[in-house]
Amino acid sequence: MNLDLSRLTAGRIRDAVASREVSAMELVEASYARIGALEERVHAFNQLTREIALRAAERVDSMVAEGAGLPPLAGVPVAFKDNMNVVGTNTTCSARILADHASVYDCTAVGRMLAAGALPIGKCNMDEFAFGSSTENSAFGPTHNPWDLDRVPGGSSGGSAAAVSAGMVTIALGSDTGGSIRQPGALTGTVAMKPTYGRVSRYGLVAFASSLDQIGPFTKTVEECAQALNAICGWDPMDATSVRRPEEDFTASLREGARGLRVGVVRDMLSAEGLAPDVRSQVLAAADTFAELGAEVGEVDLPHAKYGLDAYYIIGPAEASSNLARFDGIRYGYRVSDPNDVVDLYMRSRAEGFGAESIRRIMIGTYALSAGYYEAYYGQAQKVRTLIIEDFARAFERFDVLLTPTSPTVAFRIGEKADDPLQMYLSDVYTIPANLAGIPGVSIPCGLSEGLPVGLQILGPHFSESTVLRAAAAFEEARPFDVVPPLVGELAA
Question: Residue 369 in contact with residue 253, Cβ under 8 Å?
Fold first, then answer.
């Protein structure tokens, strides 16, 4: 069997393991062989977990030998963003302050992937504490986009996106607070989904903004995305924000097609400043494809979505300021060795342990929550959030799903926006409203511009993942994205 992970789907891998065409052990070695060939140039990983992966593979191969029924992701190589706790690893959040922080329990989503038979290959690089849109804000250096090594893979889950795009693993988990799954998915040509807030437990995920964070998958196909969601979704008593819902099979509706779906093109997002003409044309072409497939296509406006970026950069930093207060040099993490007193210990440990973007966001958030400014900033931002939620609710009275660009541009060059935080923040202008509203969204590749992937974002109402994935699968079948990154083609040659 050809063990080119860039060409093998999760379903094909499981079937091959079940039929003894290949062993889980061989799949682990195939994944590490590919990492060995590419990682020096891509830097998708902060830590490789060979021993953990081999133990998982041994369990799967034992089940095969015993003739036991295999779990749904048996033998599938996976990776996890480095803000998810995995026993036997350090969970660093790509930050100096947590560089030596050993995980003492598994993140629920990680545990569910392992229970589904997946093989944990490693922990992926990210923007420090998920603060960024390019994976340049990492204490361990930037990740490079497999489509062009001089360009970013997006962020903050750029390492997870790059690992799947380069075929190092089949599935990777990321976290999405303002677009940190969907935006890197768009820039790396992968399928990338943020589920409804509360669908996936956040237990064991190092929090950025607790009312916005959600874990989701990166895959090469929509079907694999649905399979990953089957594994990680579900109520968790350890997370008070996880929601009790009837169990769903997200693969069940993938073959229903787009006929009869009501598809709304978000008009005001297609006229926004900064949207690249090629990206706009690709999204409009995608809307035409849905019409050709029998969907009812119309236009809709989200009048308050344009204020989403402003609201997010108050709410997100405010919650981050509170969540990151625990990293103080006392209980765990980096601490200076020669403090003058406890105040000096706090101040220097945090100043030296946090990177520039983390410090920027902590300061913004602390200011927004301070006496005399709370209502003027945080309170107003929450009111805008409510207006955005109401905009989506009205839109979904008319449409089953909405179409927007995922990112205003294709992948930009490393360093291009590093000194301009505002331009960097604008990278998430189309993804942030879904986080503020808590609705599900998926980014799927819809074409190329300048030889780089363009992402189409499909959004749905709360708990409509099956409908969103149905639409994505119909588009994928009609417009298959079978181009591979040059780095992958180079390796195949």
Answer: no
